[in-house]
Amino acid sequence: MSFKNFNLHNAILKAVQQCGYTTPTPIQVEAIPKVLAGSDLIASANTGTGKTAAFVLPALQRLTKRSFNKKQIGKPSVLILTPTRELANQVSQAIRNYGRNLRFSSVGIVGGVSYSLQLKWLSRPVDIVVATPGRLLDLMERKNMDLSNVNLLVLDEADRMLDMGFVDEVKKIANKTPEDRQTLLFTATWDENMANLASRLLKEPERIQMEAQPTQHNIEQRLHIADDLEHKNRLLQHLLDDDELTQAIIFSATKLGADMLAQELKTQGHSAAALHGDMKQGARNRTLTNLRRGRLRLLVATDVAARGLDITTISHVINFDIPRFAEDYVHRIGRTGRAGAAGTAISFALPDDALHLERIERYTGQQVPRHEIPGLEPTRSLRRPQRNKRQPKRGNNYSAPRKNHYNDPKRKGSRRYNQPAPHHQRQGGTWAKKSAT
Predict the structure, then answer these.
(1) CA 52, CA 43: separation in Å to the nearest integer?
(2) What are the residues whose beta carbons fall under 8 Å from the beta carbon of 236, sequence distance 6 or more?
(3) pTM score
(4) Mean per-residue pLDDT for 9-38?
């Protein structure tokens, strides 16, 4: 099977070849013919399986058809919604790569970029808009975006958009597009909320379900138990001395933690930088550009980078803080092992992380192999938190009510009703502690 079997335009086939791709991935084999045939589509596929090309290539093929190539100012014919800026930028880059031999215009509409610049882009004819829901809706409410010409709507990582609370925005945006549009929905997970959204937006969709295993088999997973933060830092230093680690994303639970760890690594002489949601868009773009060009070896990130980053040179993912949600674990480790390449995912777990680890292993259907480094073995083990069982107070009988109410605080004649609690006194209509004398 080759890309020629899809009967794509020669300019697109040439660009695919220039990008170094010869054989389509399974999701591309399944999805591209259905999209080209005009069907609505629901595709459930893991991260790193090549799903971006599965909708970008058919979208570009549409632009080669004269009937669909009606450029109008601020009225795109293809709209692609993504949950994050990073994923939007990634999709935009894929469009530029695969469409390098075509004449068309594409615009990215995301937060963190000045409105005046985006309005300037939209003042010209545009074919494809890649957008995050919040910023796109802002422009729509300002009457700066017209979706009446959209004939292809793509929801990329729709499950993530729902997780981030964009469901209402997505529905409002879809309602402004023509009813006879073609709609594609790509998701890594499927639940009742996703089914409800799909039933509202898609018409008789084709369904593609790729491999059920949530994690890729080409990613080696390891778990190191750490006693405390200092132990984590020693483990990390040992791993960074490995020559096989060419580039790594190190995931932190918090923005402050990412900043502090990145600064500490730079102090130690590593080429490192942080990436999180509090950074301005320009700084985030520069950081990712430096990572792609090999100027950075280490990226310390929060979960803002767990989805959408497609950098084939990432050899390792290190969960410095183990994620609280199993889905985030899958998307984090999916930043390595891209497009079938081998990758390594290493997680640090504190003794109190046992419950989170159990959820991850239950979700993925496999145990993360435990590893120890000689000289850095843990002195503590994972432990499940014990629930405290409520014990009855001494002298109380909870099985039957008391016959007398001498000590009932709610009964007006009781001693406890008439006397204030010890060490308190009545002041101004409220109870207040007595000051020490």
Answers:
(1) 11
(2) 250, 318, 320, 348
(3) 0.67
(4) 92
